[in-house]
Amino acid sequence: MQSRLMSAVEATANVAVGYGIAVITQVMVFPLFGLNASLIENLILGSIFTIVSLIRSYTLRRMFNALRQNA
User: Can you give the three-state secondary structure of 14-43, one letter per residue?
Assistant: First the structure.
């Protein structure tokens, strides 16, 4: 079983990598849809989605650990 701290560390590492990928993807894809955001705007938008993703990832990890423990 994974501790709460290790769940948070794993989720943080996963989301940090995802943040970099998301910002690069936004920079490349947004112009294809006529969305022209500056690098700063892309970084801020990526940060917002990263925070949401971190919370989601940690919550799901804890839920699945609880399910496994109760099974």
Answer: HHHHHHHHHHHHHHHHHHHHCCCCCHHHHH
CA nearest to 1, candidates 66, 55, 54, 60: 66
pLDDT value at residue 71: 78
d(CA 32, CA 27): 10
pTM above 0.70, yes or no: no
Contact yes or no for 19/47 (Cβ under 8 A):
yes
Within 10 angstroms of residue 58's Cβ, the number of other Cβ atoms is: 18
Average confidence score pLDDT of the chain: 89
